[in-house]
Amino acid sequence: MAEIEELSACEATLEMLRQAKEEGQETAFDRVEQQKGCAFGEAGSCCRICNMGPCRINPKKPEESRGVCGATMDTIVARNFARMVCGGASAHSDHGRAVAETLILAAKGEAKDYEIKDRIKLLEVAADLGVEVGDRDINDIALEVGERCLAMFGQQEGELAFAQRAPEPRKEIWRQLGVFPRGIDREVVELMHRTSIGVDQDYENILLACARTALADGWGGSMIGTELQDILFQTPVPLESKVNLGVLKEDEVNIIVHGHEPILSEMIVLAANLPEMQEKARSVGAKGINLAGICCTANEVLTRHGVPIAGNVLQQELALLTGAVEAMIVDVQCVYQGIGQIASCLHTDIITTSPKAKMPYARHIEFHEDRALDIAKEIVSAAIDNFPKRGKVRIPDVQESLIAGFNHEYINYMLGGRFRASYRPLNDGVIDGRIRGVVGVVGCNNPRVKHDDVHVRVVKELIANGCLVVMTGCAAQSVAKAGLMLPEVAREVCPQGLWEICEAVGIPPVLHCGSCVDNSRILIACTAMVHEGGLGDDISELPVAGCAPEWMSEKAISIGEYFVASGVYTVFGVKWPTMGSKNVTDFLFKKYGELFKNTWDFEPDPEKMVGKILSHIDSKREALGIMAKRERVLFDMAMRRELEI
Ligand code: NFS
Q1: For residues 88 and 554, is the Cβ–Cβ distance under 8 A?
Q2: Could you give the angle at the alpha carbon of 579 between the alpha carbons of 574 and 583, nearest 5°?
Q3: How far apart are CA 123 and CA 520, in angstroms?
Q4: What is the CA(643)–ligand 1 centre distance, in A?
Q5: pTM for this entry
Q6: 73-233 and 405-624: same fold?
Q7: Per-residue pLDDT tens over the stretch 550-573
Q8: Whose CA is nearest to atom 6 of ligand 1?
Q9: 41 alpha carbon to ligand 1 midpoint, in Å?
């Protein structure tokens, strides 16, 4: 058992792992032991892009060999990194495209179950896109916004409209480097082309193109996803919910939504709450229907509806092993193939819904926006039918409360008030040193490191050192499970300046900002900090940083790349995919600093990672001349009058 305890910092996970061991069930935690990897793969020096290979360059003697075509270590490593950026950017962007298509259908009245829920957001986005508002019908505006967004995918020339939101000096950097993203699909396709056999052989040129493609994700595909989801489903506001496997209920039909696109999960929420479905659940002996989420779809329905989170990505197999899940409904991304195998031994149905993602042992009920609620009802109904087939149930009695649903709009409102929305108090808090800096902690879980442990240690240390932390993805779920997303913890774990702010505003020191596409919210928040004034003219001057301590997905690489290219110092943990080439790694970790004003970094040790982040933040504070802790000055009326002149 001592061994199992080393695998996770999460009690519920450990309990389920012990059970899995007793029952001889295999999970990702076992398979990671079988997969030792190889030195070439780890160094990023295995090239499989043509049929003359695979070619492998020995990382210990990179000068001594070349690929059959003559490709060097630098070229191969850069190409592999670039293809990770492409994979990640295309995942987020295809998600964004699906949302744009749904908005268009909704606006045309061809997807009757969807409607424009956030008119204010629609008008704001319309203004940014130059869509005329006047006294036009709301659906006409939505249609044009949707079409403009959809057109960004196929745009060939010019500059992506949402990227115009970035601070001026940042856009100048992109223009000068020739990396201002043109069209979303174009950047991905071009980078795939450039990294195919015999095309771009200059690692520096490839790594610049990586920035362009990733920017097309952050300020393009992901931002479209976030903005249009807010329009369709409402911009989240803070709400309370629960997290961890203990949210599953023994006496109710448990349905888990897993994957990424809220287009589906929103409808499942609606269907599960219908009286006819609740009635059907009671007719099979259940007390009701309990909906819970896994992965980023969980973050979507959590922040808009308070649907509890069953767990993060590494808990998807464990949730099934409770025996309490009637159906796990999946769409795209981060769905382990292992769940099919586990479900095949249980009463659980894995229900795939996207034509893009089918899997063995699953039942496929294809989702179509024009019949969304009917299909959602069919899915919920199928789950209910499974309830009487349940075998042994064992749900860990572990759950935690959290407050989630923070974003740019809410930060603006909570700090400034409804009539004077403003980032001023945040910037002032940073300037006077009560907030040392703001750190985005994002990304996945990875069984190569102790599950949740690195996230929790990094975040605890950051808030103990006066940093306000903003989180998304599975990382956010790790930290919520550790109880750090509650306002009352601020006084216990933060220095006085930070907890005073948290208490005055009523926020936790760690803000849950949503799913991985919602990292675009962090770009917007950084830009708003710049515009508010007093912290420099560009994102790169802010005392902020990003990190992904337990990352695993290509999507995380794309996110990190667009953060760095947007001027945010970004540190990744676990292991780093370009170690085979010193030149490539130096380009990302050093040369990017000259080009983009901040760099990538790598540090698997949580304490050292925090040390690097704090020294970066302090260097930015130093440069801004706000290093010395200043006392707050309370303005009296005379001083205020003077200010207004
Ligand atoms: Ni959300 Fe980011 Fe997947 Fe978790 Fe990781 S990829 S999209 S963080 S693991 S769901």
Answers
A1: yes
A2: 140
A3: 19
A4: 47
A5: 0.95
A6: no
A7: 999 999 999 999 999 999 999 999
A8: 553
A9: 22
